[in-house]
Amino acid sequence: MKENQQVVKDGLWNNNAALVQLLGLCPLLAVTGTMVNGLGLGIATTFVLVGSNVTVSIIRKHIPQEIRIPIFVMLIASFVTNVQLLMNAFTYELYLVLGIFIPLIVTNCAIIGRAEAFASRNPVIPSFIDGLAQGIGFTLVLMILGGLRELVGQGTIFDGAHLLLGEWARELTLRFYITDQKFLFAILPPGAFIGLGLLVAVKNIVDKRATEAKNKELPISPIPQKSS
């Protein structure tokens, strides 16, 4: 149980793919113009992560070491194809918005890395938990970054929710201010780089303060006196 809890903690915070490993930055920086875009890509990535982790864990003892990476890529590509077909069928407009970054999930180093570093060496249940935790952690970063850029750039949060959830979700949009012209610096790639840098800085500050607080709580052992 403690091992699974540590796997979850690593995926969500300690070893977050976006904030610590800095993997999958191409889609992360490109599509997070809005929170909905980030959520859509995050769900797709999580589905692929969980599916590939579980599959690799099941067949890990039957995969020749010499060709394991090509096999991992093939498995990941099959799950990405399923995601493409599902999004094309049920969230077509969002699929058009995300564009090439859905098939590019195949090349996401975070997914291949988890298959190689974790799923190929652990049973099914821990691999499932690892894939889910890593996917949720990645999705949260996508949503936060997308939400910040959307708020600064156009004054809304969750605009375009109907692209993912259906027409009823139009009412979920929160508008904080009305502007005649969007703040393009926040919506275009420079805003993504600055936003991600701020998120990484916040995480480092939180980790540093947590470490300092933990060190203060540790009892100070007395220095043994040397006998003369």
UniProtKB/TrEMBL annotation:
Q: What InterPro entries does the annotation carry?
A: NqrDE/RnfAE, RnfE
Q: Which key words tag this protein in UniProt?
A: Cell inner membrane, Cell membrane, Electron transport, Membrane, Translocase, Transmembrane, Transmembrane helix, Transport
Note one Pfam family from the annotation.
Rnf-Nqr
Q: Where are the transmembrane segments?
A: 12-33, 39-59, 71-90, 96-115, 127-148, 183-206
**Could you confirm whether the keyword Lyase appears in this record?**
no
Determine the domain of life of the protein's source.
Bacteria
List the record's Gene Ontology CC terms alphabetically. Answer: endomembrane system; plasma membrane
- Major localization listed first in the record, in broad terms: membrane
Annotated GO biological processes are: electron transport chain
How is this protein positioned relative to the membrane? Answer: Multi-pass membrane protein
Q: What is its EC number?
A: 7.-.-.-
Compartments annotated for it: namely: Cell inner membrane; Endomembrane system
Q: How does it assemble?
A: The complex is composed of six subunits: RnfA, RnfB, RnfC, RnfD, RnfE and RnfG.
What is the role of this chain?
Part of a membrane-bound complex that couples electron transfer with translocation of ions across the membrane.
Q: Return the NCBIfam families for the record.
A: PRK12405.1, rnfE
Q: Which family does it belong to?
A: Belongs to the NqrDE/RnfAE family.
User: Can you name this protein?
Assistant: Ion-translocating oxidoreductase complex subunit E
Question: Which organism is this protein's natural source?
Answer: Aliikangiella marina
Quote the gene name from the UniProt entry.
Answer: rnfE
